[in-house]
């Protein structure tokens, strides 16, 4: 007797020890998940800052690129214009050189004419001089008096014409010389302009190369920012995915486990397990899909998608649900701004919680009843509590009567809040699932009996 008692005692202590050890391990695992989630959220927050900084730097470098491209384009146009001016200046200088050369030829021609006529004048003057050496009597006896006067008159006339012609030629020569001087001055001015434009073009080319180098460096810098941004976004997405995994319920039950909980709820509410499981399948795939959004702004009800960080409006209705939601999360020890809730559909608001997908304002109507049954605070993310809440709601809607019509009506009320036939598709879908689950449960019961 004592031996049996001792063995029994040891077994009991061992079992209790195992149970406590499992509880401790589960507690530690949950605590580790919370710590991991907090660490990931801190890392995500830092990454989001980095992403904003990278995006800011990309925008800055993009603007710098545009400015540099505009400057380079302007410099190219300016260099092209200066090059055209240089070519035009060279052409003018070349034409002026030809004009100067032609003018110099004309001047040289005038000089030769002047020298020729000067030589003729010299000969003429010599003749006059020789005549002047003859005596008047000799001239008169040799040529006659009339011839003398004629010759004198001819000399004077010729002399006058020669001087007039020389005067004209000198005037032309002086004009040509002045023209040449002006052309040379003009040529010199254009040559200076060509040189200045060449220097200006060289300077613009130097600046353009500097701007092109700056553009290349800016493009490389922007490419680095883009690579860093992609890496940060990739890491942020990985973190969001992991946070999403950690943010849901601890573990979705198997169908067998869910059936056992549904039978427990049936004893309390009278709602058939097949019907309850069909509702929970329609709502969250029995706890596998409990939402994909976080509430972030309690004033507007806006939030984000957990997996992408994309901002979403209408995550939770402020006037109806946010107050109750903050109270619920406080009671069960959850961070309201990192607890997953449903995202809004194309109409209405999101904010449904846990496997049963209750909105906060509806949950508070049932939490006292749940707590009175379980003896602890009602938790919408707890599998057993969420099953019980759904069973109580469905029973209130008439599902405990267990007829097709009553269950169909209860399903419609569960989705729409009242008998709104616009949403009859939901009730139809639930009842199809019920038929399948009735067969699955029958097979499960049969397997358990065997």
Quick gist of this model?
The chain has 450 residues and is mainly α. 78% of the residues lie in helices and 2% in strands. It has 2 domains: 199 residues, Orthogonal Bundle (Helix Hairpins); 195 residues, no CATH class.
Account of the 3D structure:
The structure is a single chain. This protein has 450 residues and is mainly α. It folds into 2 domains: 49-247, Orthogonal Bundle (Helix Hairpins), CATH 1.10.287; 255-449, no CATH class. The chain has helices at residues 2-133, 136-143, 145-247, 255-269, 273-284, 318-332, 360-363, 367-374, 383-396, 404-416, 424-449, and strands spanning 293-295, 303-305, 311-312. The protein has a 3-stranded antiparallel beta sheet with strand order 1-2-3, with no helix packed on it.
- As residue ranges, the low-confidence spans are 1-28
Give a count of the beta strands, DSSP E runs of length 2 or more. 3
Lateral strand order in the biggest sheet: 1-2-3
Give me the secondary-structure category: mainly alpha
Oligomeric category = single chain
- Average per-residue pLDDT, rounded, comes to 83
SSE pattern: HHHHHEEEHHHHHH
Backbone CA Rg = 56 Å
CATH structural class of the largest domain: Mainly Alpha
CATH topology of the largest domain: Helix Hairpins
Count, helices: 11
Strand content: under 5%
Q: Termini distance?
A: 36 Å
Q: Please state the second-level CATH architecture of the largest domain.
A: Orthogonal Bundle
Q: Helical residue percent? A: over 70%
Total domain count = 2
Instruction: Describe the global form.
Output: rod-shaped
Largest sheet descriptor: 3 strands, antiparallel
